[in-house]
Amino acid sequence: MFEKRKDLTKFLAVAETGAILSAADKLGITQPALSRVVARLERQFGGRLFDRMSTGVRLTPLGAVVADLARHILYEIEVAEEKINATLSGRTGSLRVTAGPMWMGAVLPDVIARFHETCPGVEVKLKTTPLSEGIRLLANGDSDLHCGGINGNEPLPQFLRSERFLDMTWGVVAHKSHPLQSGIPSEEALADFPWIDFDAPLRADAANGRPSLTRVLDQLYDRTGRRVKTVTRAGSGGLSLMRVGPYLSWLSLTFLDRIPGHPLKPLPVAFGSFRYRAGMISRRSADDLSPFGIFRDIVRETVSSKED
Fold this sequence. Notes:
By secondary structure, this protein is α/β, with parallel strands linked by helices. It is built from ten helices and eleven strands. The strands form two sheets. Strands 3, 4, 5, 6, 7, 8, 9, 10 and 11 form a nine-stranded mixed β-sheet that branches. It has a two-stranded antiparallel ribbon with strand order 1-2. The longest helix has 29 residues, at 61-89. The model is unreliable at 201-208 (pLDDT under 50).
């Protein structure tokens, strides 16, 4: 059923665009040619893969299963080809890693440095993402490992696995020279300063068990009746902004001392305190790759001293 790789690629293009015409344009083929591919696959799998709607198409339950398996199969083919090409060219492969903003800014730089001391020939590709996007990239075969918050209840495909090994504490944070660092600020005072949202524009969701900054600021309004006037949505680039302005944010206290120069400190307030588990999600097929195992071990060792 899964013999033709090109057909699977074309099928996934339709699934991702939700329209045969758009997928055909993306693939550089005609709509009738792509429709014939879909019809051929539906005959092979013994059922409809798409429901046809006025606005396009959507996967049927059978189509969703086929799409999940097709992504996995195409990824495994890609891994096999990478191993062969690496052997022929003398390289030792690559790793694709995603992580939340604080992990990317405060943890992975040390991890990468240590990793390349052991595996200098392995290319590492990094991308900052929230958990939901990290899982999507893993499931699609576009990533090998995600580091960040994990609540253990995420619905994962069988070819992915999660490891939770770090308790993280979040709280309200500011630059060490921020005016509110001089005493114990009231909750009302927190609304007087601009805030930085590190989850945006990547937009974290409730899947990792951690509320978003939006929810935290809604709680602040419920308790004080005051709205924060300015929120800058900056992603991991917000670390630079917090060095130069009177910004507040809601970040992992566990990793603050890993930021170069130690510019940030938690404010002495109980508001915003939150604890959850973090770790890694990875593809089971990567377990046999020696560089992957080394990288994963270094991540564990780098953060193990931070568990509180």
